[in-house]
# Entry
Amino acid sequence: MLEDVGNLFHGFAVVVQPFNLVLMVVGIVLGVIVGVLPGLGGANGVAILLPLTFSMSPTSAIIMLSCIYWGALFGGAITSILFNIPGEPWSVATTFDGYPMAQQGKAGEALTAAFTSSFVGALFAVIMITLVAPLVANFALRFGPPEIFSVYFLAFCSFVGLSKEPPFKTVASMMLGFGLGAVGLDQVTGQLRLTFGVEQMLNGFDFLIAVIGLFGIGEILLTMEEGLAFRGTAAKINPTVVLQTWALLPKFWLLSLRSCLIGCWMGISPAGATPASFMSYGIAKRISKNGHKFGTGQIEGVVAPETAAHAAGTSALLPMISLGVPGSPTAAVLLGGLLIWGLQPGPLLFTEQKDFVWGLIASMYMGNIVGLLIVLTCVPLFASILRIPFSVIAPIIMVMCAIGAYTVHNNTFDVVMMLVFGVAGYFMKKTNYPLAPMVLAIVLGDKAEESFRQSLLASQGGLNVFWSNGLVSTIMTLGLIALFWPIIQAGFTRMRGAGGLRAT
Amino acid sequence: MSDTTNESGGTGPSHRGVEVGVALFMALLALIGIYGSFKVGVGWGDSGPRAGFFPFYVCLAILVSCAVNLTKVFLTADDGEIFAEWSQLRQVGAVVLPTAVYVALVPYLGIYVSSALLIAAFMRWFGRYHWVTSIALAVGVVVLTFLMFEMWFLVPLPKGPLESYLGY
# Structure
């Protein structure tokens, strides 16, 4: 433990180098802008800017990218509160009480509450990561291919069983992702598969293109349905309001703590930040004395979802760096970035790339502090971005997406694929096919398949290798439980219903 | 796809129709995948599962899921819900079409010229700005982007005849 504290301070030393500090500020500003604009959400923004970091050292690059991530987390709250437009899926719950507050002229309070809650949630999660990640990594060093596959299995099953979308749509989406990820060169046998002789398919479908298309273009197309107007309330934050709100907030420490825990728990599982924010809002509403007033502008209705969402968004990085399994689409993009830089996410990262890992963790602390300062001071600036007419900003967003798509492999075919993914994303979102499992499957497909095949090779084709020892059996069983959770839950409800007790 | 009306009075293609379409399209992709998997072999080779093994079962799972989804669609009563109003789809199409043209032009005109055209077109047709404003802003943004990417980031982007004429 003591050694880890030392590592953390070493990480801070890496982070406060002038170049990295500049990158941090740039990253946060870019991230907030990205979070405020529709179509350039967290995952998409990171995906577009990823190729630009190829010329930097991995440590600097991940610092900037993760700061973009924080910025986007903060930025989503701005549009939710001021414009009733959730900048990110996890900011939807913030609109419930945030927008009414703004309409009542309490925008400054709402924004301060949101930003501060986000900061608290993220900080909680980062401290948790600092303490837990090395332990998990240590533990995971003992994983062989069957164990690694079982962790992927658990992640994918959690998506199917625990998400709110119909399970077979989640399965279809995920399997499609695996299929797309399988196109191209097969790593084990060296054969080309599913390319049908089309030369541009040699490299397969890059997850970055999928992300930019699905989350970026798709999002814009969805926004187009609603027309082109952003009607919003003006926002000014003056220091008095900030201090007054800060005086108010400690009253809600229990609410904060609860939300942090919910957020961390959901963030680590692939469920992610969105369910965390909704769950936290729902529970706060039920427990609070003012619960019946939620939806009319209660400050708790802003604190709860924002704390949980940021705690979740941050803790999604824990399984990514320690196990190599991302807990959210943005974490998946960051993971992809790590792979591109030649780093092996997972337990070995802690032993072989100490500078990188602890630099990243240290930047999480600093990034959050700097981020809080920046958003508190610059909100009117960021809000005014949305006043730029849509007809000007939409094509600019398209151009940025196209540039992002091109710079991945210097391939204009990818730009075409981006549009294809965009239209696909539009249709999928409207018909309730979840996109996150598909992205995760494209990113992890090859690795999951590799560990699957290695396990089978070692066992000469027997599937019992996945139940060969206590550890892997436990994880596989957890996966199966997650997969069939809705059925299990229904069973419990029926049992309890028969006994006359109301299930929650 | 059948036209049905929603509560607010707009008409559009029915939601069920689109759901069926999406499921069928996915099934089609899965069938293509299965065909492709057979080409590289789906069984066991001497070094473990062959290249087509994994994709084959994945596509099979897609087919099963699509079958389930299709069944669900047909089993639930048609509540007349529409996918989107025609006017909404028109607006979406109004974005997709120019973008498709833009994407097709990029390999030939380079990304800078194409982007300028896209921005100008959007501003003129959607925003109804004056020709001069549209072109001025479009060119301005593109020149800024050019400076950012070519000079500062040193990331080369696809260029077309105009740039080679100017000596880049």
In short: Residues 35 and 154 of chain B are 43 Å apart (CA to CA). Chain B has a mean pLDDT of 79. Strands of chain B lie at 3-5, 11-13, 44-45, 48-49.
